[in-house]
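hey so u asked for the seq, here:
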Amino acid sequence: MPEMKGERGEDEDTIGIYVGGRNIEGERHGEGWAVLPNGDFYQGCYCRGLRNGKGLYVFKNGARYEGEWRRAMKYGVGQMTYPDGSRYEGDWRYDLKQGFGAYYYPNGDIYEGAWFKGKRHGLGTYFYAEYQVKFMGTWVDGVIEGPGQIMYPRVRFHGSWFKGMPKGPGCFVFDTNCMQHGFYELIKDPKYEEYGEHEEEKEEKEEKEGKFEGEEEIEVDETAGKISVWRARNVTAYLAEFLPPEPVPLPVHDSVPSLTHESVSTELMQFEPPTLASEHEADDNDSWLLHRQQFIEEAEQKE
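ran it, structure tokens below
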């Protein structure tokens, strides 16, 4: 089976070219650099034959990771830049984004918040550059779910989301100090009406009738072929007690144990932490590192 990028160390002398330190067992140990047969390049620290500590890994396709490693996996804090120009800056665990991190997209969009096993999971914010709109809420397994807010230039919406779509009661708060109350309802997307009225209901009925007793129930996606439509009900003066629940961090239970850290004494090669601020960032106080520290402190308080 071919070696996956970033998953293993070059623990055999026959794999690529290596220049650097070794221990008494002949394993790569300490500082060094290696060129893999597939064209990838690594420069940094090793421990007992595996990438461990700080290092820079450059992929043949142009992607690069600069940050911390443990047992040949991205583990700790690091920055990953992808071929399309997008980049992730934040926490890693077992080669996956996990903890707090910011993802910068080529179109200018930014997600900043919690990650779990490579997906957005927990409290976070998403900035839509094209519309200058920011969403704050919770994600579950990569999909928006639960309480949230959308912040427009002069209006803010408070409500709930279901499988990535607004659904249920909510309110719009205007800068004129008033509120519009109502609810989002999922209705059929007119684009799908061309398939025939009630066609979807017929298909669902046929599926249920064709099931045998004891057969596992098939979960039906309530959002398939649907759009969210706002139904306004009334307007009132602004009162905080009328606001829906605020989004809160999600508890995370990881059954995978943490990797122990094995330090290697290094003197020749000094790796500075990656530049973890946006090139166009105007305010240093808005950096993802400060938000990450706040995220960690809030998580510790809840434990």
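Helices lie at 199-209, 288-302. Confidence is low (pLDDT under 50) at residues 1-13, 266-285.
lmk if thats what u needed
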